[in-house]
Amino acid sequence: GGGGGGGSQADFTTDTDMPINDTKYAKMTPAELRTWLCTGTVTGPSACTHTSQEEFWLYHMSGPPMLAHKGDWDEWLVDSWRDITIRFRKVYHYYYLDMWSWMLANVHHGKRQLIVNTYQLLYPSIYEPWKAVEETLAKVDPCEAPMDEVLANPNLATFLHYTSHTNSWDKRWFPRIQIFNECNETSTDAYHFRAILQSKVNKSNMTMAFASCVARRFFAAAVLKSCAGLPTAALFEPMSKGFKL
């Protein structure tokens, strides 16, 4: 599947800006460190030991997958991804670790990823299908128009990676409490999340406004469906602007 996220560009085996937690790991060569991360030993065997930088750049510069086959998850993905992440946390404290461990899990098992740029919208670039967004913006206001009109263009990307949108939306705004399961309309996080969804959209950049408004309305609709018939649903209904899942 095509992965999302641009945080995997750093070379985690040689980046001197990232302090290593324990000196015993700092004494390892880059190849030994990759091997240990993938297997738990410095001797392997693992494809992580000698994989070239070119191989990483061509097939593994991505975050976790947008799509993955269930057979792959069952056979190797879940266990290897978990185990490598646990070892990474012993070496580094960094919020990209899940991406790097995902990359190494694929390398360790000799898998190559298919990175498809048209699957998602992250930030306007020549590689992502933002032209379809521009066509939509010429016809409707994504913050107010019915969602069937906002999403009518068949050339829109399948996934919206709602991050890095200054003054519009950021995945790190998401509340800590699982409001979709608890449906507690009186919780602090529920009101905080509601305030985020109600905050003014920055329309100075309409492509970013598209991402922001679509994400807000999807999340509001998710609360409506998960908490149907409860007071929490009524609290979030105005932000969905009539959109239902």
Structural overview:
The protein has a two-stranded parallel sheet with strand order 1-2. Helices cover 46% and strands 2% of the residues. It has eleven helices and two strands, in the order H-H-H-H-H-E-H-H-E-H-H-H-H. The protein is globular and about 60 Å long. By secondary structure, it is mostly helical. The protein has helices spanning 23-26, 30-39, 53-59, 70-91, 97-108, 130-137, 147-150, 179-182, 188-198, 206-226, 231-240, and strands spanning 120-121, 159-160.
List the helices and strands and how they pair.
Blueprint: H1 23-26, H2 30-39, H3 53-59, H4 70-91, H5 97-108, E1 120-121, H6 130-137, H7 147-150, E2 159-160, H8 179-182, H9 188-198, H10 206-226, H11 231-240
Parallel strand pairs: 1-2
